[in-house]
Amino acid sequence: MGMLYKRGTVFWVKYYVNGRPIRESTGTDKEKDAERFLKEREGRVAMGQPILPRVDRVRVEELLKDLQEHYETTGDRNLREADCRLTPLKSFFTGRRVSALSGADFTRYVQKRQDAKVANGTINRELSMLRTALRLGAENGKVLRLPVIHLLKEAPPRKGFVDASQFQNLRKRLPEDLQVAVTIMYQFGWRLREVLTLTLSQVNLEAGTLRLEPGTTKNNEARLVYLTEELKGLLAEQIDRMKALSRKLGRVVPFRFPHLRGPYKGTQRRDFRVAWKTAVEAVGMAGALKHDFRRSAVRNMERAGVPRSVAMKLTGHKTESVYRRYAIVSDADLQDATRRLTGTFTGTISPALDSPHPTAQNN
């Protein structure tokens, strides 16, 4: 049996679901209305129906937690990336009721992120995740009204590329172990994190392959590439360096690109900002990004005639949007377009196109 009691002037109810006590505010100070609320809850329990939450009490952090659990269960999104997007949302919206959200709240969030020098594109990704959380909340009966969230105008996508000669000059300025890392990035378009987290078990020099395991990539899909002879030699040298480091430390170093010196010797390398800044400034490429290697790899494959379906398997792109964003087209396509245009600007139009329309001749 359930019961009514008061907290201040508002009635609360206590009832049981599968032997577990549930306490809930009725939101009213009128006893008759509170009794009806309790009977409705008891009726649902008796019929085995779900107890829907009071939507006016649902807070944003609850929806964000539900979304995180959804990603963990379904694997729809890389969890590390999702956590990165969710962190600023939790920081700003925790404690806010969903039913009270308005456009002013989203505007203040945008202003706060812009004050922190966060790019509009990043803010849009975060707002899109909040939208998803709200839609999931509506599916779960926790949200009755979906507030409108306007996205920001984003800067045009960066179109930095590195050609072969620039790459060779830049690579020479990096330490030997990092030369191997950037070669993988430039040849196969792999992301920095995908390369730096490689372990010994992911390289097979005998078979000449390099692989990424499911769940370690941004799209969570496995990836396998066959090594060029140059890269096979570079990786063999890197393995020798790692074995020497393991002997020196007296323990196995599993990472393919660990720190080779300094206080973090033998631990996994996360980045190489100082070495990169020194190298790009030395070759006159200040402002170049490591991610430019990824775009360059896609362009190089397109120019080499690698089918896009195969190229996307190598780089891990799931759609051809990368070709549209960076206006990447093959030289063969450009040459074919020129051949088709031959005569258009010289007056040598084909006779079929140059002849008068039959109707005009009759008139």
Task: Sum up the structure in keywords.
mainly alpha; 363 residues; 6 strands; three-stranded antiparallel sheet; disordered C terminus
Supply the helix-strand structural class.
mainly alpha
User: Average pLDDT across residues?
Assistant: 87
Task: Report the strand count.
Answer: 6
The coarse overall form would be elongated
Order of helices and strands: EEEHHHHHHHHEEEHHHHHHHH
Strand order of the largest sheet: 1-2-3
The end-to-end distance, rounded to whole angstroms, is 96 Å
Give unreliable regions as ranges.
349-355, 357-363
Tell me the number of helical segments per DSSP (H or I, 4 or more residues long). 16
- Main β-sheet description: 3 strands, antiparallel
Using only C-alpha atoms, the radius of gyration works out to: 30 Å
State the share of residues found in helices, binned by percent.
40-55%
In terms of DSSP E residues, the strand content is: 5-15%
